[in-house]
Amino acid sequence: MYKSGSSPNCLEDLWMNVALTRTLSTIWSYRVVVGRLSIRSLKNRYSATAGGIAWAIALPLMNLFVFWFVFSYGLRLSAANTDVPYFLVLFCGLIPWMAFADALNNATNSVFEHQYLVKKIAFPIEILPVAPIISAAIVHACMLVFLVMLLMFYGVWPTFYTLYLFLAFPAMMVFALCLGWVLAALNVFQRDVGQLVGVIISLWFWMTPIVWELSMLSPNLRTLMQLNPMVFVVETYRGALIYGQPPWEWSAAAMAFGVSVGLLALLGPGIFLRLKSHFADVM
């Protein structure tokens, strides 16, 4: 069994006895606690407001309206290669992005915001970044229902390809969680990490085909942009809901996403477990 401070051997004791397996086992053992933390996270965020938890849905809807107005009427952008209104194409990219950004931001700050739990010896702090991921997933599921209903109103009905959302949705959340473990651990030691994540997410947004589409780019630039892991998620959502395309239509994007998730799943939990014994010392 791995012990903090022991000398590296046997590939760091097989990367601390396969960190991902250990972490998933812990999450399952404390699943009730994770669920309660997730619900409390949503409630606390809006506890001082008259609207309460309803703001969890209202705020994303307001953001959608702002983007719709600016890009449809201000910049007068139109969708490429489809007769579907541009704002629907925009929403299909924006809704998963908002879930990812919200999950990653809150996962990054999750450990620091629960300092009182970090100092409890028996508490498994590796579950802390999981709660904001689940909270974001709950809101995202509600937004997806809204989006599907909106598409149906405009005559875009679910097809067999819509089932690919059951691949893209959890895959996106796993990506956010594994990256969140790394960032949450680093944020304990250097508080600038939390601020930098906000800046990086803003830049990442514009580098992802959300308000624009990959088909607008030249072939070479299109291939380069597919190295962005979130391209796979956004294009899978659009393919599933609008274009009727399977995820492997974007093979380079699928490969970039798969490699990113694989590496983070291998490294993320291990980095967190490796550093967590030092958290209490710097808080």
What is the gist of this entry?
The protein has 283 residues and is mainly α. It has helices at residues 10-29, 31-45, 55-74, 86-109, 115-118, 130-153, 165-189, 192-206, 219-225, 229-243, 251-275, 279-282.
What's the count of strands? 0
- Number of helical elements: 12
User: How many domains is the backbone divided into?
Assistant: 1
Anisotropy-based shape: globular
User: Low-confidence segments, ≥5 residues, pLDDT <50?
Assistant: 1-7, 13-17
Considering DSSP H and I runs of 4 or more, what fraction of the residues is helical? 55-70%
Q: Classify the beta-strand content into a percent band.
A: under 5%
Task: Please tell me how large the radius of gyration is.
Answer: 20 Å
How do the helices and strands follow one another from N- to C-terminus?
HHHHHHHHHHHH
Structural class comes to: mainly alpha
The average pLDDT is 85
Euclidean distance between termini CA atoms: 27 Å
Main β-sheet, in a few words? none
Written overview of the protein:
With 283 residues, this protein is mainly alpha-helical. The chain has one domain. Helix content is 70%, strand content 0%. The chain contains 12 helices and no strands. Helix 1 crosses helix 11 and helix 3 packs across helix 4. The relative contact order is 0.14. The N terminus is likely disordered.
